[in-house]
Description:
Blueprint: E1 5-6, H1 9-12, H2 14-25, E2 39-46, H3 49-61, H4 63-66, E3 69-76, H5 79-87, E4 93-96, E5 110-117, E6 122-126, E7 142-145, H6 150-161, E8 171-174, H7 177-186, E9 191-195, H8 198-205, E10 210-214, E11 225-230, H9 232-237, H10 239-258, H11 260-271, H12 277-285, H13 292-300, H14 303-319, H15 327-330, H16 334-339
Parallel strand pairs: 2-3, 2-4, 7-8, 7-9
Antiparallel strand pairs: 1-3, 4-11, 5-11, 6-9, 6-10
Amino acid sequence: MSKYVKSNSRRKFVAQSTTLAVATSLGGFGFPAIAQSAKKVRVGYLETLAVTGQIWTGVARGHWAKEGLELDLVKFTTGLEMFNAMIGGSLDMLSTGAVISNFPARGQGKVFLLNDIEYATAQLWIRPDMGITNWNDLKGKKIATTIGTTAHVFLDTALRANGLDPSKDVEIVNQGMAAAVTSFISGAVPAVALWVPFNVVVKEKLPSAKMLVDASKYFPKSAIMGGWACRSDYFEKNQDICGKVVKGWVSSNDDLIKNASSILPLIQKNYFPQVPLSDLIEQYSASKYYTSTEWKKMIQTGVVTHWLQQVTDFYARVGGIQNPVPASQYFDSKLLLESIKG
C-alpha cells in the first residue's frame, strides 16, 4: 500500500458534502431530499484529466451526492498499481487508462464504464540536442516509459508503424513516469513516451525538446480507451451501488461535455492548481469525449468492444497473457445502457 498516496478527502469533498447537506435540508421545504447517509465508495484514480474529468465534475457539481454517494478517492501513479490495490481489497473500483484492457483480460476485474478515448494524450518526445531528430535516429537508442501503461501501448504502435521493432531496434527503459521524464530531462535517455500532463514538465524544463508524434496519428487503429473497473465479486454483489456510480457518471460526463467552458476553470482551480488553465484545456482536447447517448450507440454497434480488444491483444502479446478473457466478456455494459435515456 506504500505505492499510493491518499488524497485529502476533506478538502476535495467540501463541494460534494455541502451539496449533500443543502439538498437534504431542502427536503423540509418541499424539495426532494437526498438520503442523509451517503454510501462511501473507495475509488482509485490517476491525476490526469482523461481519467478524472468526470470524477471532478461530479464532485464539484454534486452529481455523486445526488445519487447518495461519497467517493473516497485515492491517487495512484499508474493503473498497474491501482489494479493491484483493488485486487488486494484496498479499493472497490478504479478509473484508469489502457490498463482496463489488461487485468480484466486476466480474469481480474470487470469493466463497466468508459471515460473517453485517449486520442492524443500519449506522446513521444525526443532530444535534438542529443542527435535525435527522426525515427531513424532512434534505432539502437534508449526510450524511457512505464511498461504496461497507455504510453507503452502507444509507443509500441508508433515504433512498429515506423519500421522499428520495439524488442530489437530500441531499448525500452521501464521507469515510473515521473522518473522517466526526469531521465529524459537530465539527458540519461534521448527519448520518452509519456502521457499528459507530464508534457508540461518537459516543456518547462527542456524547451529544446521536440514532440515527435502523439497517439492521434494512429487513430482508430490504436484507439486506447480509459474507463472504470471494479472487482468481479464487488460488481456482482453491489449492483445497486455500481448502478448509482453509473448514473452519477452519466450526469457528470454529459455535464462536462455540455459545459466544458465553465467546468474546466473550476476543475483547474480546485484540483489542478499546478497546471495552467491553457494546458488543462489542451489536455481536454487531447481526449475524445462522447455523450452518454453516443457511447450507447458505439456499444451497441460493437465499436467499444473492438477497441478494448485491440489493447487486450497488445497485452496478450507483450505481457504473455495465456487464454485472455475477451473484451466481450470482461466489459459489462448493462448498467450503463440502462442508465442512458434515448
